[in-house]
Design brief:
Elements: H1 3-79, E1 101-117, E2 148-152, E3 157-166, E4 169-178, E5 199-207, E6 210-216, E7 242-250, E8 253-258, E9 262-265, E10 272-275, E11 282-291, E12 294-308, E13 313-328, E14 333-343, E15 357-359, E16 366-368, E17 370-383, E18 386-398, H2 401-404, E19 409-421, E20 427-440, E21 445-458
Parallel strand pairs: 9-15
Antiparallel strand pairs: 1-2, 1-3, 1-21, 3-4, 4-5, 5-6, 6-7, 7-8, 8-11, 9-10, 11-12, 12-13, 13-14, 14-17, 15-16, 17-18, 18-19, 19-20, 20-21
Protein backbone atom coordinates (compact mmCIF):
# COMPACT_ATOMS: atom_id res chain seq x y z
CA UNK A 1 0.00 0.00 0.00
CA UNK A 2 1.37 3.32 -0.98
CA UNK A 3 1.61 6.36 1.21
CA UNK A 4 -1.50 8.00 -0.24
CA UNK A 5 -3.67 5.04 0.71
CA UNK A 6 -2.36 4.98 4.29
CA UNK A 7 -2.97 8.68 4.74
CA UNK A 8 -6.82 8.48 4.17
CA UNK A 9 -7.72 5.87 6.89
CA UNK A 10 -5.49 7.65 9.30
CA UNK A 11 -7.34 10.93 8.71
CA UNK A 12 -10.67 9.20 9.18
CA UNK A 13 -9.48 7.69 12.44
CA UNK A 14 -8.33 11.06 13.70
CA UNK A 15 -11.67 12.70 12.80
CA UNK A 16 -13.59 9.88 14.52
CA UNK A 17 -11.46 10.21 17.60
CA UNK A 18 -12.20 13.88 17.76
CA UNK A 19 -15.99 13.67 17.10
CA UNK A 20 -17.08 10.65 19.14
CA UNK A 21 -16.23 12.07 22.62
CA UNK A 22 -18.18 15.27 21.82
CA UNK A 23 -21.19 13.28 20.71
CA UNK A 24 -21.01 11.18 23.89
CA UNK A 25 -20.68 14.28 26.01
CA UNK A 26 -23.70 15.91 24.29
CA UNK A 27 -25.78 12.79 24.81
CA UNK A 28 -24.91 12.68 28.55
CA UNK A 29 -25.88 16.38 29.18
CA UNK A 30 -29.28 15.95 27.51
CA UNK A 31 -30.01 12.87 29.56
CA UNK A 32 -29.14 14.69 32.75
CA UNK A 33 -31.46 17.57 31.83
CA UNK A 34 -34.28 15.14 31.15
CA UNK A 35 -33.65 13.33 34.42
CA UNK A 36 -33.79 16.64 36.34
CA UNK A 37 -37.12 17.52 34.76
CA UNK A 38 -38.49 14.08 35.60
CA UNK A 39 -37.46 14.49 39.24
CA UNK A 40 -39.12 17.92 39.36
CA UNK A 41 -42.33 16.54 37.87
CA UNK A 42 -42.33 13.68 40.36
CA UNK A 43 -41.99 16.19 43.26
CA UNK A 44 -44.92 18.22 41.94
CA UNK A 45 -47.05 15.10 41.60
CA UNK A 46 -46.19 14.07 45.16
CA UNK A 47 -47.13 17.55 46.45
CA UNK A 48 -50.47 17.39 44.64
CA UNK A 49 -51.14 13.92 46.02
CA UNK A 50 -50.30 15.13 49.55
CA UNK A 51 -52.63 18.11 49.29
CA UNK A 52 -55.40 15.89 47.98
CA UNK A 53 -54.90 13.47 50.86
CA UNK A 54 -55.02 16.25 53.43
CA UNK A 55 -58.21 17.60 51.88
CA UNK A 56 -59.77 14.16 52.00
CA UNK A 57 -58.77 13.79 55.67
CA UNK A 58 -60.31 17.18 56.54
CA UNK A 59 -63.52 16.29 54.73
CA UNK A 60 -63.66 12.98 56.56
CA UNK A 61 -63.16 14.71 59.92
CA UNK A 62 -65.84 17.30 59.12
CA UNK A 63 -68.21 14.55 58.05
CA UNK A 64 -67.55 12.79 61.35
CA UNK A 65 -68.38 15.95 63.33
CA UNK A 66 -71.57 16.41 61.34
CA UNK A 67 -72.57 12.83 62.00
CA UNK A 68 -71.90 13.23 65.74
CA UNK A 69 -73.96 16.42 65.90
CA UNK A 70 -76.76 14.77 63.94
CA UNK A 71 -76.67 11.81 66.31
CA UNK A 72 -77.02 14.11 69.34
CA UNK A 73 -79.86 16.00 67.67
CA UNK A 74 -81.60 12.74 66.82
CA UNK A 75 -81.21 11.63 70.44
CA UNK A 76 -82.78 14.86 71.71
CA UNK A 77 -85.63 14.60 69.25
CA UNK A 78 -86.29 11.00 70.22
CA UNK A 79 -86.26 11.94 73.91
CA UNK A 80 -88.84 14.70 73.45
CA UNK A 81 -92.47 13.75 73.73
CA UNK A 82 -94.50 13.77 70.56
CA UNK A 83 -96.27 17.02 69.89
CA UNK A 84 -94.01 19.19 72.06
CA UNK A 85 -92.21 22.08 70.33
CA UNK A 86 -88.47 21.81 69.92
CA UNK A 87 -86.15 24.35 71.58
CA UNK A 88 -86.12 27.55 69.51
CA UNK A 89 -88.07 25.86 66.74
CA UNK A 90 -89.21 29.36 65.69
CA UNK A 91 -87.34 32.69 65.89
CA UNK A 92 -87.54 34.44 69.26
CA UNK A 93 -88.24 37.83 67.69
CA UNK A 94 -90.76 37.00 65.00
CA UNK A 95 -91.83 40.66 64.76
CA UNK A 96 -88.42 42.21 65.34
CA UNK A 97 -86.54 44.29 62.83
CA UNK A 98 -83.79 42.54 60.86
CA UNK A 99 -80.50 42.09 62.76
CA UNK A 100 -82.21 42.68 66.14
CA UNK A 101 -80.36 40.99 69.01
CA UNK A 102 -82.33 39.56 71.93
CA UNK A 103 -80.79 39.10 75.40
CA UNK A 104 -81.94 37.82 78.77
CA UNK A 105 -80.31 37.91 82.21
CA UNK A 106 -80.71 38.49 85.91
CA UNK A 107 -79.77 36.93 89.20
CA UNK A 108 -81.11 34.82 92.06
CA UNK A 109 -80.51 36.51 95.42
CA UNK A 110 -81.26 34.86 98.76
CA UNK A 111 -81.11 37.09 101.85
CA UNK A 112 -81.11 36.35 105.57
CA UNK A 113 -81.17 39.14 108.17
CA UNK A 114 -80.86 39.01 111.95
CA UNK A 115 -82.13 42.36 113.29
CA UNK A 116 -82.44 43.93 116.72
CA UNK A 117 -83.73 47.42 117.64
CA UNK A 118 -83.72 49.28 120.95
CA UNK A 119 -86.86 51.42 120.67
CA UNK A 120 -89.61 49.23 119.25
CA UNK A 121 -90.05 46.53 116.61
CA UNK A 122 -90.08 46.95 112.85
CA UNK A 123 -93.51 45.87 111.61
CA UNK A 124 -93.75 42.30 110.33
CA UNK A 125 -93.89 42.06 106.55
CA UNK A 126 -92.80 45.65 106.02
CA UNK A 127 -90.00 46.82 103.73
CA UNK A 128 -87.81 47.62 106.73
CA UNK A 129 -87.61 43.91 107.51
CA UNK A 130 -86.27 43.18 104.02
CA UNK A 131 -83.53 45.80 103.59
CA UNK A 132 -82.03 48.76 105.44
CA UNK A 133 -84.70 51.47 105.46
CA UNK A 134 -83.79 54.28 107.89
CA UNK A 135 -87.31 55.72 108.05
CA UNK A 136 -88.48 52.36 109.47
CA UNK A 137 -86.11 52.40 112.48
CA UNK A 138 -88.44 52.49 115.51
CA UNK A 139 -88.21 55.45 117.92
CA UNK A 140 -89.93 55.78 121.29
CA UNK A 141 -91.03 52.16 121.70
CA UNK A 142 -90.01 49.35 124.02
CA UNK A 143 -86.47 48.00 123.94
CA UNK A 144 -86.33 44.96 121.64
CA UNK A 145 -83.63 42.90 123.26
CA UNK A 146 -84.47 39.85 121.18
CA UNK A 147 -83.40 39.30 117.58
CA UNK A 148 -85.75 38.86 114.62
CA UNK A 149 -84.69 36.60 111.74
CA UNK A 150 -86.07 37.25 108.25
CA UNK A 151 -85.27 35.36 105.06
CA UNK A 152 -86.47 35.90 101.51
CA UNK A 153 -85.54 35.76 97.83
CA UNK A 154 -87.67 38.70 96.72
CA UNK A 155 -84.81 40.77 95.32
CA UNK A 156 -84.09 38.14 92.68
CA UNK A 157 -84.28 39.83 89.31
CA UNK A 158 -84.63 39.16 85.59
CA UNK A 159 -84.56 41.33 82.47
CA UNK A 160 -85.13 41.22 78.72
CA UNK A 161 -83.58 43.47 76.10
CA UNK A 162 -83.51 43.86 72.34
CA UNK A 163 -80.88 45.88 70.50
CA UNK A 164 -80.51 46.67 66.85
CA UNK A 165 -80.28 49.24 64.09
CA UNK A 166 -83.30 50.43 62.15
CA UNK A 167 -82.60 52.49 59.04
CA UNK A 168 -79.32 53.70 60.52
CA UNK A 169 -80.74 54.45 63.99
CA UNK A 170 -79.68 52.55 67.12
CA UNK A 171 -82.73 51.24 68.98
CA UNK A 172 -83.09 49.44 72.30
CA UNK A 173 -86.02 48.09 74.31
CA UNK A 174 -85.51 47.03 77.93
CA UNK A 175 -87.73 45.37 80.56
CA UNK A 176 -86.61 44.56 84.12
CA UNK A 177 -88.52 42.95 87.00
CA UNK A 178 -87.92 41.73 90.52
CA UNK A 179 -90.11 39.81 93.00
CA UNK A 180 -90.45 42.50 95.65
CA UNK A 181 -94.18 42.79 95.06
CA UNK A 182 -94.69 45.44 97.71
CA UNK A 183 -93.29 43.56 100.69
CA UNK A 184 -93.60 40.28 102.52
CA UNK A 185 -97.09 38.84 102.67
CA UNK A 186 -98.39 41.12 99.92
CA UNK A 187 -99.98 38.22 98.02
CA UNK A 188 -99.30 35.22 100.20
CA UNK A 189 -97.90 34.50 103.63
CA UNK A 190 -94.72 33.17 105.18
CA UNK A 191 -96.57 30.35 106.91
CA UNK A 192 -97.24 28.44 103.73
CA UNK A 193 -96.87 29.83 100.21
CA UNK A 194 -94.45 32.77 100.43
CA UNK A 195 -96.11 34.14 97.31
CA UNK A 196 -94.74 37.43 96.05
CA UNK A 197 -95.72 39.57 93.12
CA UNK A 198 -93.59 40.48 90.14
CA UNK A 199 -92.59 44.15 90.32
CA UNK A 200 -91.78 46.35 87.34
CA UNK A 201 -88.42 48.04 87.79
CA UNK A 202 -87.59 49.38 84.34
CA UNK A 203 -89.40 49.56 81.01
CA UNK A 204 -88.05 51.91 78.36
CA UNK A 205 -87.19 52.36 74.72
CA UNK A 206 -84.17 54.32 73.55
CA UNK A 207 -83.13 55.43 70.09
CA UNK A 208 -79.96 57.33 69.28
CA UNK A 209 -79.77 60.06 71.96
CA UNK A 210 -83.35 59.75 73.22
CA UNK A 211 -84.91 57.61 75.95
CA UNK A 212 -88.58 57.29 76.94
CA UNK A 213 -90.01 55.12 79.69
CA UNK A 214 -89.36 54.11 83.28
CA UNK A 215 -85.77 53.90 84.49
CA UNK A 216 -83.42 55.46 87.03
CA UNK A 217 -83.91 59.19 87.51
CA UNK A 218 -81.40 61.36 85.71
CA UNK A 219 -80.87 63.01 89.12
CA UNK A 220 -79.42 59.73 90.45
CA UNK A 221 -75.88 58.48 89.78
CA UNK A 222 -76.28 54.70 89.74
CA UNK A 223 -72.58 54.19 88.94
CA UNK A 224 -71.61 55.69 92.32
CA UNK A 225 -73.60 53.18 94.40
CA UNK A 226 -71.42 51.07 96.73
CA UNK A 227 -70.80 47.33 96.47
CA UNK A 228 -73.27 46.40 99.24
CA UNK A 229 -74.80 43.17 100.50
CA UNK A 230 -77.91 45.13 101.44
CA UNK A 231 -80.35 46.14 98.70
CA UNK A 232 -78.95 49.68 98.68
CA UNK A 233 -76.47 50.05 101.55
CA UNK A 234 -76.12 53.68 102.71
CA UNK A 235 -79.79 54.38 102.00
CA UNK A 236 -80.19 57.70 103.84
CA UNK A 237 -77.24 59.24 101.98
CA UNK A 238 -78.19 58.44 98.40
CA UNK A 239 -80.59 59.66 95.75
CA UNK A 240 -82.72 56.65 94.80
CA UNK A 241 -85.68 56.99 92.40
CA UNK A 242 -86.98 55.13 89.34
CA UNK A 243 -89.76 56.75 87.34
CA UNK A 244 -91.14 57.53 83.89
CA UNK A 245 -89.23 60.17 81.95
CA UNK A 246 -88.20 61.58 78.61
CA UNK A 247 -84.42 62.01 78.43
CA UNK A 248 -82.00 63.45 75.90
CA UNK A 249 -78.27 62.70 76.14
CA UNK A 250 -75.41 64.23 74.16
CA UNK A 251 -71.78 63.69 75.10
CA UNK A 252 -71.32 64.35 78.82
CA UNK A 253 -74.74 66.03 79.13
CA UNK A 254 -78.17 64.57 79.85
CA UNK A 255 -81.44 66.40 80.50
CA UNK A 256 -84.83 64.94 81.35
CA UNK A 257 -88.49 65.65 82.04
CA UNK A 258 -89.66 63.27 84.78
CA UNK A 259 -92.84 62.20 86.54
CA UNK A 260 -94.04 64.83 89.05
CA UNK A 261 -95.08 63.49 92.44
CA UNK A 262 -95.31 65.40 95.71
CA UNK A 263 -94.95 63.89 99.20
CA UNK A 264 -96.49 66.20 101.81
CA UNK A 265 -96.76 65.96 105.59
CA UNK A 266 -99.81 67.19 107.47
CA UNK A 267 -99.60 70.38 109.48
CA UNK A 268 -97.97 69.61 112.87
CA UNK A 269 -98.30 65.87 112.24
CA UNK A 270 -96.40 62.87 110.91
CA UNK A 271 -99.01 61.54 108.48
CA UNK A 272 -97.97 61.83 104.84
CA UNK A 273 -99.93 62.24 101.64
CA UNK A 274 -98.66 61.51 98.15
CA UNK A 275 -100.10 63.77 95.50
CA UNK A 276 -100.01 63.47 91.72
CA UNK A 277 -101.68 66.83 91.15
CA UNK A 278 -98.59 68.42 89.61
CA UNK A 279 -99.04 69.78 86.10
CA UNK A 280 -95.35 70.37 85.36
CA UNK A 281 -92.69 67.65 85.06
CA UNK A 282 -89.63 67.53 87.29
CA UNK A 283 -86.71 68.91 85.26
CA UNK A 284 -83.20 67.47 85.70
CA UNK A 285 -79.81 68.02 84.10
CA UNK A 286 -76.57 66.06 84.55
CA UNK A 287 -72.94 66.48 83.46
CA UNK A 288 -70.48 63.56 83.75
CA UNK A 289 -66.75 63.24 83.16
CA UNK A 290 -65.23 59.76 82.79
CA UNK A 291 -61.71 58.38 82.55
CA UNK A 292 -59.42 55.59 83.65
CA UNK A 293 -59.32 57.36 87.01
CA UNK A 294 -63.08 56.85 87.54
CA UNK A 295 -65.91 59.35 87.03
CA UNK A 296 -67.26 62.64 88.40
CA UNK A 297 -70.83 63.86 87.98
CA UNK A 298 -72.96 66.89 88.87
CA UNK A 299 -76.75 66.90 88.64
CA UNK A 300 -79.44 69.50 89.29
CA UNK A 301 -83.20 69.36 89.67
CA UNK A 302 -86.07 71.89 89.68
CA UNK A 303 -89.64 70.90 90.46
CA UNK A 304 -93.12 72.03 91.32
CA UNK A 305 -94.81 70.92 94.57
CA UNK A 306 -98.58 70.78 94.37
CA UNK A 307 -101.50 69.24 96.23
CA UNK A 308 -105.16 69.88 95.46
CA UNK A 309 -108.09 69.04 97.72
CA UNK A 310 -111.79 69.75 97.55
CA UNK A 311 -111.31 72.96 99.53
CA UNK A 312 -107.75 74.11 98.80
CA UNK A 313 -104.93 74.20 96.28
CA UNK A 314 -101.49 74.13 97.89
CA UNK A 315 -98.26 74.64 95.97
CA UNK A 316 -94.55 75.26 96.40
CA UNK A 317 -91.21 74.81 94.67
CA UNK A 318 -88.24 72.51 95.04
CA UNK A 319 -84.68 72.43 93.77
CA UNK A 320 -81.49 70.53 94.49
CA UNK A 321 -77.91 69.73 93.53
CA UNK A 322 -76.06 66.41 93.73
CA UNK A 323 -72.33 65.75 93.34
CA UNK A 324 -71.14 62.15 93.05
CA UNK A 325 -68.49 59.90 91.61
CA UNK A 326 -65.96 57.14 91.90
CA UNK A 327 -62.18 57.44 92.22
CA UNK A 328 -59.95 54.46 91.43
CA UNK A 329 -57.13 54.20 93.97
CA UNK A 330 -54.82 51.77 92.23
CA UNK A 331 -55.74 48.31 91.00
CA UNK A 332 -57.36 47.08 94.23
CA UNK A 333 -59.17 50.07 95.77
CA UNK A 334 -61.78 52.65 94.90
CA UNK A 335 -63.68 55.41 96.69
CA UNK A 336 -67.34 56.13 95.93
CA UNK A 337 -69.26 59.13 97.19
CA UNK A 338 -72.36 61.28 96.87
CA UNK A 339 -73.40 64.61 98.41
CA UNK A 340 -76.90 65.96 97.80
CA UNK A 341 -78.53 69.14 99.06
CA UNK A 342 -81.64 71.14 98.36
CA UNK A 343 -85.18 71.91 99.42
CA UNK A 344 -88.41 70.26 98.34
CA UNK A 345 -86.59 67.12 97.10
CA UNK A 346 -87.36 64.82 100.04
CA UNK A 347 -88.81 61.98 98.00
CA UNK A 348 -85.61 61.72 95.98
CA UNK A 349 -83.38 61.05 99.02
CA UNK A 350 -83.25 57.92 101.17
CA UNK A 351 -86.55 56.41 100.01
CA UNK A 352 -88.36 59.59 101.08
CA UNK A 353 -86.71 59.77 104.49
CA UNK A 354 -88.31 63.21 104.73
CA UNK A 355 -91.25 64.74 102.86
CA UNK A 356 -90.95 67.27 100.07
CA UNK A 357 -92.75 69.76 102.28
CA UNK A 358 -95.40 70.41 104.94
CA UNK A 359 -98.85 71.92 104.57
CA UNK A 360 -99.56 75.14 106.41
CA UNK A 361 -102.44 75.46 108.86
CA UNK A 362 -104.86 76.62 106.20
CA UNK A 363 -103.74 74.02 103.66
CA UNK A 364 -103.04 76.64 101.04
CA UNK A 365 -99.25 76.59 101.00
CA UNK A 366 -96.47 73.98 101.07
CA UNK A 367 -93.40 74.77 103.16
CA UNK A 368 -90.49 73.00 101.43
CA UNK A 369 -88.30 70.79 103.63
CA UNK A 370 -84.53 71.19 103.31
CA UNK A 371 -82.22 68.17 103.20
CA UNK A 372 -78.46 67.55 103.15
CA UNK A 373 -77.38 63.94 102.63
CA UNK A 374 -74.32 62.02 101.59
CA UNK A 375 -72.21 58.89 101.84
CA UNK A 376 -68.67 57.73 101.28
CA UNK A 377 -67.69 54.11 100.58
CA UNK A 378 -64.26 52.52 100.36
CA UNK A 379 -63.95 49.22 98.46
CA UNK A 380 -60.90 46.95 98.63
CA UNK A 381 -60.21 43.82 96.58
CA UNK A 382 -58.10 41.40 98.63
CA UNK A 383 -57.69 38.88 95.81
CA UNK A 384 -59.67 37.80 92.75
CA UNK A 385 -62.17 35.97 94.96
CA UNK A 386 -62.50 38.22 98.03
CA UNK A 387 -63.52 41.86 98.32
CA UNK A 388 -64.97 44.12 100.98
CA UNK A 389 -66.46 47.59 101.56
CA UNK A 390 -66.79 50.09 104.39
CA UNK A 391 -69.60 52.68 104.11
CA UNK A 392 -70.54 55.77 106.13
CA UNK A 393 -73.81 57.62 105.48
CA UNK A 394 -75.84 60.47 106.95
CA UNK A 395 -78.86 62.65 106.17
CA UNK A 396 -79.96 65.85 107.95
CA UNK A 397 -83.43 67.36 107.50
CA UNK A 398 -84.16 71.06 108.02
CA UNK A 399 -87.70 70.99 109.40
CA UNK A 400 -89.70 74.09 110.29
CA UNK A 401 -90.91 72.75 113.63
CA UNK A 402 -93.60 75.40 113.81
CA UNK A 403 -95.23 73.61 110.88
CA UNK A 404 -94.03 70.02 111.38
CA UNK A 405 -94.04 69.63 115.15
CA UNK A 406 -91.39 67.58 116.96
CA UNK A 407 -92.42 64.06 115.95
CA UNK A 408 -90.75 64.12 112.52
CA UNK A 409 -87.35 62.74 111.53
CA UNK A 410 -84.47 65.12 112.13
CA UNK A 411 -81.56 62.91 111.00
CA UNK A 412 -80.47 59.38 110.14
CA UNK A 413 -77.07 57.79 109.85
CA UNK A 414 -75.53 54.36 109.35
CA UNK A 415 -72.28 52.40 109.15
CA UNK A 416 -71.89 49.30 106.96
CA UNK A 417 -69.00 46.83 106.68
CA UNK A 418 -69.05 43.76 104.46
CA UNK A 419 -67.04 40.95 102.94
CA UNK A 420 -68.04 39.22 99.71
CA UNK A 421 -66.48 35.94 98.56
CA UNK A 422 -66.81 34.64 95.00
CA UNK A 423 -65.75 30.97 94.80
CA UNK A 424 -66.25 31.12 91.04
CA UNK A 425 -67.45 33.80 88.60
CA UNK A 426 -71.06 34.99 88.96
CA UNK A 427 -71.51 33.51 92.46
CA UNK A 428 -71.26 35.84 95.49
CA UNK A 429 -71.47 34.79 99.13
CA UNK A 430 -71.43 37.80 101.44
CA UNK A 431 -72.16 39.17 104.89
CA UNK A 432 -72.67 42.76 106.05
CA UNK A 433 -72.79 44.32 109.50
CA UNK A 434 -75.12 47.33 109.75
CA UNK A 435 -75.65 49.91 112.45
CA UNK A 436 -78.30 52.55 111.88
CA UNK A 437 -79.78 55.40 113.90
CA UNK A 438 -82.78 57.70 113.44
CA UNK A 439 -83.43 60.80 115.54
CA UNK A 440 -86.59 62.92 115.83
CA UNK A 441 -86.85 66.68 116.29
CA UNK A 442 -87.86 65.96 119.90
CA UNK A 443 -84.42 64.44 120.56
CA UNK A 444 -85.71 60.86 120.88
CA UNK A 445 -83.85 58.31 118.78
CA UNK A 446 -83.62 54.62 118.00
CA UNK A 447 -80.88 52.24 116.92
CA UNK A 448 -80.84 49.27 114.57
CA UNK A 449 -78.27 46.48 114.54
CA UNK A 450 -78.32 43.91 111.76
CA UNK A 451 -76.29 41.04 110.35
CA UNK A 452 -77.22 40.58 106.70
CA UNK A 453 -76.05 37.51 104.76
CA UNK A 454 -76.65 36.82 101.09
CA UNK A 455 -76.01 34.32 98.31
CA UNK A 456 -76.33 35.69 94.79
CA UNK A 457 -75.88 33.95 91.44
CA UNK A 458 -75.97 36.04 88.27
CA UNK A 459 -76.93 34.62 84.89
Amino acid sequence: MDARNLRRPLALAIVAALLLPGMAFAQTAKEKELEARIVQLEAQVQALLGAQQRQQDALAQQQGSIEQAQAKLDAVQVAQADGKPKLQSTPILTAGNPDTRFSFGGFIKVDAMATSTNAGEIADGSAGRMFYLPSAIPVGGADESRTDLDTHAQFSRFWFASDGEVQGHKARAYLEFDLFGGGMGNLGNQASTNTHGVTLRQAYVSWDKWLAGQTWSNFQDVAALPDAVDFVGPTEGTVFVRQTQLRYSSGPWAVSLENPQTVVSAYRGTARTTSDDGNLPDITARWTSKGSWGHFSVAGIARQLRMDTATSHASGNGYGLSVSGKVNLGASDDLRYMLTGGTGIGRYVGFALGPDGTLDAAGGDIESTGVLAGFVAWRHVFDPKLRGSLMLSRAQLDNETGWTGFGVTKSAQSIHANLIYSPFPKLDVGAELIWGNRELESGADGDLRRLHATIKYSF
